[in-house]
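Example record for the data management plan.
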Amino acid sequence: MSSPLRKQLVVVGHGMVGHRFVQAAVERGLTETHDITVLGAEPRPAYDRVALTSYFEVGAEALSFLPCGTYDDPRVTLRLATEVVAISPRQRVITLAGGEDLHYDELVLATGAFPFVPPVPGKDLENVFVYRTIEDLEAIRAASRKAKVGAVIGGGLLGLEAANALHQLGLETHVVELAPRLMAVQIDDAAGSTLSRHIETLGLTVHTGAMTEAVLGRRKVTGLALKDRNPLDVDLVVFSAGIRPRDALGRAADLAIAERGGILVDERCRTSDEHIWAIGECAAPGGRMYGLVAPGYTMAEVVVDALLGGGAGAFTGADLSTKLKLLGVDVASFGDAFAADEDALEVVYADAVAGIYKKLVVKELASGGYELLGGILVGDASAYGVLRPLVGSGMELPDNPEELILPAGRGATGSTSALLPDDAQVCSCNDVTKAEIVAAVSEGGDCDSAACVTACTRAGSTCGSCKNVVKKIVEDHFAATGRTVDRSLCEHFAMTRQELFEVVAVHGYQRFDDIVAGHGRGRGCDLCKPAVASILASLLHHHVLDGANATLQDTNDAYLANLQKNGTYSVVPRLPGGEVTPDKLIVIGEVARDFGLYTKVTGGQRIDLLGARLEDLPAIWRRLVDAGMESGHAYGKSLRTVKSCVGSAWCRYGVQDSVGLAVELELRYRGLRSPHKLKGGVSGCARECAEARGKDFGIIATEKGWNLYVGGNGGAVPAHAQLLAGDLSHDELVRYLDRFLMYYVRTADRLQRTSTWLAEIGGVARVRAVVVDDALGLGDELEAAMAQHVDSYFDEWRATIEDPEKLARFVSFVNAPGAPEPAVAFQEEARATTLTLGTAVCRLDQVQRESGVVALVGGADVAVFRTYDDEVFALANVDPFGQASVLSRGIVGTTARDEADVPFVASPLLKQRFDLRTGVCLDDPEVAVATYDVRVVDGVVVVGARRETIAS
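Corresponding structural encoding:
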């Protein structure tokens, strides 16, 4: 029997949704019966439009969903820069701009949307832009070189992204929004005010309730006219005032169009013509357009299902819940956020000082309890992963719903994982439910830890925001079923951090190799290596970059600076107690100016210099050190700051010298490595202006001396410190604080803050017995350990700039140390680069064992890694999740897979692990980075041809 004729499927549009459709069609076998032709109007393949702002940092290749320019399936043809001008439904023919006709059996329209530009005078002037494509951003960047002040018209999601882009380009930035608040569709007035305050602290200016009347200027932009307000002096304008469906082809073909635009489709996403389908922003299911990418992805799957001829897939609407970070601020909106239900009640928690606003919308049930209808979170969206799945679940909330949003220590119940229904989506990135997580650790499941659950189900493997929820679900399930929670540090060490600390101390180990050989297995990983590095630093007081120990250091310690999302670093000199001289302020300003750094005063009374390139760090610190400043250890799990008020020296209410004590304590404990970061505070009176009770250790002055509080912290889960001892003399205070800190350093778990350690170890009463009453007889030992730390302190950055061996790691490219990094300008060329003979990049001995370097090869950033056994691997250096050229800076380790140790690098950005052999992400096998042929010839590392990795 002969095979039926193959059908012709044409897809018009190669944006995110069009690409997702083709992916699904290939993965689900539609190309077994169909030849697919994809027509994209843009000159480049589909790319991540959601992350468009990061284009300035990482380049087009890093954003591309198809960097090689073609699909692997030969039955898919991609044609770019191809415009469709007409559809003839009766003949099933489309006509291209050049006059070519293409026949189709089925046609999928994924033409997306276009930016809406209000019809105001001056909208066509030079230096007026929209914010939609890479070409738009290229034009904005070119114009910004001669501009000083920019305005974004529109304060929604895209408008704030555009404002972030202008801010990154160094422009003074205004956000002009017609509505009375930012993000008017997602959040209410109070949340909008909180968001505006956050944004304005970054130096942007927000104008809400402002109508744009005209863009001013004759040829170029010179200003912006606002109704009933003074005009703004700007020389660049970006319109980001919403989008409209690109439905012109459908209109011309007499397809049914929704009242407010968009091609009308049924629940199978079929248009009024039975052979034409529409998906994404150009479609209007039920007459409504969806401007988010997730509904478009769902539509793509529905159409593939229909074309395969089976299933009951239907698009019945979309969850428009949103959680994102805008200009560094966490914002989330879910369900009925505006209390539209007539019986809705609102539960609100607001902390204007901390910049946090949380609202739950609830409805009383007949039983007297409450169900969750929706909510808004600004400044702290950590509860989103638990709250959103409760909407529509029918689950009854606790008797006091406010407990779900109150900070720890103010009546919050702690975990809410037990509230989640089994079908609750815990990980929205990978569509993993609570039931799937529980199944993975239930009897017959494959997992015995949260880390294993992440590897098996991919929950928490992408953005990481749900990792704490995943961990709590696992722990709660173990507790409910009587199983013991595995407290092992990782797969390489079957012991806790406290047990490992004692092993290292008793045996006097000084090298990771000896520790893992004697008490572990394999070659370690990104979990145990930083923990061992911290333990060694606490016990030996050496430089963290000494010898092989440099390869153990986590993201920030590895380069003595805080890694930012774009691959640059922040620099924070120590200002003890917030005290700084005018001369030092001048030097900080000059350094920021000369190196083009963004400056911001931190909550810890210091000055943060952001945007420093890796290769510039030594030069920056040389100038700071020469001016008498030292490392602020903002990069380490160590003491950060001891914050203070002005105390009795200046304040009329002060009863003690809080500044003097804060300076003394910060200089005493500076450089102390610990399981997690440490922060302190000293207030000169009971008015508590230094917020000491929000710190790991806080001191509040009394008429008789000092009260010592311990176990507080800010952050996502704030906790109030508790009183350890009161009315202490200076010497008593220092003695108890020495003991407390050393007791914490020795006994806390990996990455455990003092607040959770305090609760797990037996509460403040237990710690008081050890620290104040010396119930264990450890007092002298703990004090001696602290004295040794104080006596052995040295400034890590001064020691680094005086040591050529340590300075050698601060280069952009191992084979081109003078070239700037990241090499954004070169990444466009990487697609066309094919190296057949290879490029010699460095000597093998220039790559430290179990670490990486980055080389410039044919215009591309290539990460070269060397394992403990001297195997060499090469990967593309761009992290596909964070879109920054940083993989070479990750920790190299091994993990057991199928009874073999797989070498991997853990990205320093979000910690995803990538197989060094294949480039495949071990946490999310659908994601991969390209690999390169690499070999060692006569002691020289030679990088050859690029290989595109096929993810599973």
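Summary line stored alongside the record: Confidence is low (pLDDT under 50) at residues 409-414, 822-836.
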